[in-house]
Design brief:
The complex is a heterodimer. By secondary structure, chain A is mostly helical. Chain A contains twelve helices and three strands. Chain A has helices at residues 8-34, 50-57, 59-89, 96-105, 112-123, 129-137, 148-176, 180-188, 193-221, 225-230, 242-252, 256-282; strands at residues 3-4, 36-38, 44-46. Chain A has a two-stranded antiparallel ribbon. In chain A, a hairpin with a 5-residue loop joins strand 2 and strand 3 (44-46). Chain A starts with a strand and ends in a 5-residue tail after the last helix. The model of chain A has no long low-confidence stretch (mean pLDDT 83). By secondary structure, chain B is mainly alpha-helical. The longest helix of chain B has 34 residues, at 56-89. The chains are: A mainly alpha, B mainly alpha. At the A-B interface, strand 1, helix 1, helix 3, helix 4 and helix 5 of A face helix 1, helix 4, strand 1, helix 5 and helix 6 of B.
Chain lengths: 287, 265
């Protein structure tokens, strides 16, 4: 049981100040833009909620939001089961454990624009390893600058390459925390592999999986740099995810009002979905 | 070798392929890359690396990145420690709401905040300093560090605190000489994640710097546009960005596996 102690606020204060400085001032700037219209020269006119209405009704926004949800859903559906499966198949002790961990963590430590650039040269049709292999060895016509399906396959594969290891590392950490006695008990009871997974391993991994799924959701929903460097949102608009569209509006067309309104809607959606995940996955916790 | 090890082995091979390709390209001349497909460098050259190590605009990019990333890691872990202790040991007014609010800051798309951040840091006179990038990255690293450390601290029994109190330890001595050593794995994991997310982030780092604190990633994008398409040079620069991360993960490899298991996380 935790003790009630209001002085604990003093411990939290430095964190609060630093994060608030970075979070509240910029978000108020965004709110400020979102209700005004500007023609440059720092002249602003009150616009009210007009931008929000315009964005919520715009088909361009619906399309980008749809692509964003599709991307995040595909990424989660592939990465979470794959990550768990790999963690289950990894050795639990011995020489190969650090080797696996270090090699698997490597993609996560590469700056995001480098990830985009390296997948770009990896998939170039005539001089990239994957592009050459698909086009010239297997004879499949593959060019992600022309074909939207190829572009989608490429960004999904890139994200699986980049982030599955996060799920692996976290699940693996949950798995190694299970005492041997549990497995011995299961063996005596004659439990099948599936029941061992369902009733011993999965519950023990629940907390780390909550973190993994939440992090994967937030980061894939906000992804910008990698697909921007890799496909630039193309061909056409086929891989223009929400954040890419947002930057196009904000910096490309310099429409600050609509861009700000769109950012706030975007943020609200992320917040809502994360909150749902968070409450659903922690509701049995006794905290 | 057992049958079940096939999956991790295939996965690791899949991870290594694009990295191999980057490495192979970095040893090729740009002409060879553009001339056609070759699995191994035909004319092995170190010229790309020589350029990076002799040109200050290149190697200062690496130094700048390492400075602000380290600064951010130290700040994040340092302020997260007492906060995580408060969350794991005490109940106070608004604690749960505050905890979730902290987490929400990881959800803000960096693309949204680029322009307001630029205005904010320019107005306080920190634009183009290491501190600006280090502080900006606190936005997403502090919440993560608090989250991870809270998990580890909750795994330590409360009796430890009480015994130390009865033995007459002042709080700060208990915290630094007894409590910190017991959760050092957690500190390692938190520092690793802070390092990682600060090292790979580019959008804010690029927005907040111009010359003096420019990160390596920004140098790379600039070269890509100004000097035509120097693929070999870019590949070499990309390869070098992998190294600091690889060194860090090598040092924390045991903490990552054992560490997470220890905490409630």
């Amino acid at each position: 049981m935790k003790t009630q102690n209001q002085k604990a606020w003093l411990f939290v204060l430095p964190v609060l100040l630093l994060v608030a400085f970075n979070a509240i001032i910029p978000i108020m700037t965004v709110v400020n833009y979102s209700v005004q219209e500007t023609f440059g020269n720092n002249v602003f006119f009150w616009e009210g909620l007009g931008w929000f209405e315009q964005i919520l009704r715009s088909e361009r926004f619906h399309a980008a939001l749809g692509r964003q949800f599709l991307f995040t859903a595909l990424v989660l559906v592939i990465e979470v089961p794959l990550g768990i499966a790999i963690a289950l198949a990894m050795p639990r002790s011995g020489f190969w454990v650090p080797v696996c961990l270090v090699t698997m963590a490597l993609p996560m430590l590469i700056p995001w624009n480098v990830v985009g650039a390296m997948w770009n040269i990896f998939t170039l049709p005539d001089i990239g390893l994957l592009g050459y292999f698909l086009n010239h060895t297997l004879g499949i016509t593959y060019d992600m600058t022309q074909n939207p399906v190829a572009a989608w396959v490429t960004i999904i594969t890139m994200d699986v390459w980049h982030w599955t290891s996060l799920v692996v590392l976290l699940s693996y950490a949950g798995l190694v925390s299970i005492p041997d006695a549990y497995y011995q008990a299961a063996k005596i009871d004659g439990a099948s592999n599936w029941s061992v997974f369902r009733y011993i391993q999965l519950p023990k991994m629940k907390n780390v999986l909550t973190i993994a799924i939440l992090l994967r959701f937030m980061d894939s929903f906000n992804i910008y740099t990698e697909p921007f460097v890799l496909t630039g949102g193309g061909p056409g608009n086929s891989t223009t995810l929400l954040s890419i569209d947002l930057v196009k509006i904000a910096l490309g067309q310099f429409d600050l009002g609509p861009a700000a309104a769109m950012s706030l809607i975007y943020f609200a959606i992320t917040l809502l979905v994360s909150w749902l995940f968070y409450t659903l996955m922690t509701k049995d916790d006794a905290r | 070798m057992q049958k079940r090890h096939v999956l991790p082995i295939v996965y690791i091979l899949f991870l290594m392929l694009p990295i191999y390709w980057l490495l192979a390209m970095s040893f090729k001349t740009t002409n060879e890359i553009l001339a056609g497909f070759s699995l191994f460098p035909q004319t092995f050259t170190l010229q790309n690396y020589r350029v990076i190590f002799t040109d200050p605009t290149w190697y200062w990019g690496y130094i700048n990145s390492i400075i602000y990333v380290s600064l951010n890691t130290v700040i994040s872990v340092f302020v997260a420690l007492p906060a995580a202790y408060a969350f794991s040991r005490y109940r106070f007014l608004g604690d749960k709401q505050l905890f979730f609010w902290l987490l929400t800051n990881r959800m803000a798309p960096a693309a949204v905040f680029a322009l307001p951040f630029f205005q904010l840091y320019s107005s306080v006179g920190l634009f183009d300093t290491y501190l600006a990038v280090a502080l900006a990255h606190c936005l997403f690293n502090i919440p993560l560090a608090v989250w991870i450390l809270e998990g580890f601290m909750s795994g330590v029994p409360k009796e430890l605190d009480e015994t130390a109190y009865v033995d007459g330890y002042p709080f700060w001595r208990f915290f630094t000489t007894i409590f910190l050593p017991t959760i050092k794995a957690g500190v390692g994991v938190a520092a690793f994640f802070c390092f990682m997310f600060s090292w790979v982030e580019l959008l804010l780092a690029k927005t907040l710097t111009a010359v003096a604190a420019k990160p390596i990633a920004a140098t790379m994008t600039k070269t890509a546009s100004s000097a035509g398409y120097e693929l070999g040079l870019l590949a070499a620069a990309g390869t070098l960005t992998i190294i600091p991360g690889a060194i860090v993960i090598y040092f924390v490899r045991n903490y990552i596996a054992k560490g997470f298991a220890m905490g409630r996380v």
